[in-house]
Amino acid sequence: MIRKAVLPVAGFGTRCLPASKAIPKEMITIVDKPVIQYVVEEAVEAGIKEIILVTHSSKGAIENHFDKHFELESTLEAKGKTDLLDALRNIIPDDVKIISIRQSEPLGLGHAVLCARPIVGDDDPFAVLLPDVLVDDDGMSRNDLAGMIEAYETSGQAQVMVENVARELVYKYGIVELDEPGLEPGKSTSLIGMVEKPAVEDAPSTLAVIGRYLLPGAIFPILAQTPPGAGDEIQLTDAIDSLRSETGVSAYRMQGETYDCGHQLGYLEAILAFAKRHPKYGTEFDDLLTRYAART
């Protein structure tokens, strides 16, 4: 069973500026929780027990968010604010560990994942979750990460989560070429290759990589030998392509929805989706939307 997840959170969040100038982009809130908490909850729901944050000296707020705040909890308890106290104490379950390790230089996603090697080790498989992307599995019996973990354990192959995008938008994404065209949601099949941001006419499919990976510990020696690629950075996709030629890699087509919270419109869409079904604010938020729609 895969029990470890790596979350690369060391980036400066330039796509979110100026909001991310003094606040980590991962701490920007969707309704009443920061983005990073939703991503951690996704991992925990899939059975992950160790969350490894690959972080930076400017990202202390993320570590603080998942740490115990004794003074605040004592104040809330003394004032009888039990709902808020429960919310703080239940940010992560007691059996889940948050572990931090620094990425000393911004050398790319592949390098960030490699920084987690001393904690993960070369023998255990692990998940990688990019915290810019929210995966919304509302109404599903299990989330897509859990489905992808099952696909990994059944096939023994590394998994890359993909979703269908409009063909005219394929130039924005890493696009996969599959052994089995027409892959259905919730299914997994072997990759033939990946093309980074292809021209529309050259794209081998419309299935885009969306920031969720399941990898064997064997990826670490490959990453250690991977030279800088695009942007003069160590690219995780380059290492995955090398792994594909050695042991095979599969694509898992997700069933839920994704929101790119590193982009302003994706962030706003996430707020709409999560606010409309919020147990406390959902009804009033719907009323707000109706009132604003009537003004146009």
Oligomer: single chain
What is the CATH level 1 assignment? Alpha Beta
> The CATH topology is what?
Spore Coat Polysaccharide Biosynthesis Protein SpsA, Chain A
List the total number of helices.
11
CATH architecture: Alpha-Beta Complex
Number of E-type strands: 13
For the residues shown, what is the average pLDDT?
Answer: 91
Gap from first CA to last CA: 52 Å
The CATH homologous superfamily is named Spore Coat Polysaccharide Biosynthesis Protein SpsA, Chain A
Structure in words:
There is one protein chain. This protein is an alpha/beta fold and about 300 residues long. It has one domain: Alpha-Beta Complex (Spore Coat Polysaccharide Biosynthesis Protein SpsA, Chain A), CATH 3.90.550.10. About 35% of the residues lie in helices and about 25% in strands. The protein contains eleven helices and 13 strands. A nine-stranded mixed beta sheet has the order 5-4-1-6-11-8-12-10-9, sandwiched between helices. A hairpin with a 2-residue loop joins strand 2 and strand 3. The protein is globular. It starts with a strand and ends with a helix. The model has no long low-confidence stretch (mean pLDDT about 90).
